[in-house]
Amino acid sequence: MKSEKFKKNDIVVFHDAQSRELTVPEGLTRTYIVDVLLSNGEHVLNLTIEPKKDSRAYVVVLAKLKGNATLALHTNQFHDAPSGFSDFLCKVVLFDSTRFSYSGTINITKNGQHAHAYQRNENLLMSESAYVSSEPKLEISANEVFCTHGATIGYISPEIQYYMASRGLSKKKSVQLVSTGFLSSGLDKIKETFIERDLGKMSVLKVLDY
Q1: Could you read off the pLDDT of 61-104 as tens digits, one per residue?
Q2: Which of these, 39, 31, 34, 22, lies nearest to 77 by C-alpha position?
Q3: How far apart are CA 161 and CA 164, in angstroms?
Q4: Closest by CA position to 66, among listed 122, 125, 13, 19
Q5: Is the CB of residue 151 less than 8 Å from the CB of residue 121?
Q6: What are the residue ranges spanned by the domains of the chain?
Q7: Number of neighbouring beta carbons within 10 Å of residue 159
Q8: Among 103, 120, 106, 127, which Cα is nearest to 46's?
C-alpha cells in the first residue's frame, strides 16, 4: 500500500485502482480523486484516509465497471487526532455482469474528539445482471463527534428513458449522458478548482461505446 503525503493544499488525482494511505498533515486541506475504469478481472482497492489535527480530507472515488469486472472497495476513515474532518464519496456505474462491493469504516479513537466524518456510496446499475453490496461500519470511542453515512442503489427510471427518447436521443446516447452525468456530479463541490483540462483526463468521464 502506498503512502501519499504532501506539503501544501492541493487536489491529487489517481487514475488507477491501487491501494493507498491518504494522510493530510496538521492544519491542511487536501482533495483526493480516484478515477477507476475497469473492463475485466477482479480488483481490490483499499484506502486509508487519515486527517491529522485540524486538517480536512476530501476523497472522491468515481468508478465505471464494464464486462465482467469485479471491484471490492474497502475504506477506513481513521481519526486519531482532534478536530479532524473527512468527507468520502464513492459513485459507481455498473454495466454488463459487473460486481461491486463496498465496506467503509469510520474509526474515531479517544484522541479524535470533535471529529467530523461523512461517508456516502451511490451506485447506478445499467444492467439487470450487475450486482452491488454496500456495508458501512462505525467504530467510535470519542464522545464529541459528528458522523453520517449512507448508500443508494438505483437504475435509470422509465420516465427518464421516455423523456430522452422523446427528444430524439438513441438508447446508446441516453446511457452515455446519464452515466457520465451521474459520475461528474461527484465533482460538483470542487469544480471551481478542478479545471477543464483536468476533467478531460478523467477516464470515467470519457464517452465510451456500450
Answers
A1: 999 999 999 999 999 999 999 999 999 999 999 999 999 999 99
A2: 22
A3: 5
A4: 125
A5: yes
A6: 2-156
A7: 8
A8: 103
pLDDT at residue 209 tops 60: no
Contacts of 111 (CB under 8 A, 6+ apart): 80, 81, 82, 142
CA angle 153, 94, 187 (to 5 degrees): 75
String of DSSP letters for 172-201:
HHHHHHHHHHHHHGGGGGGTTTS-HHHHTT
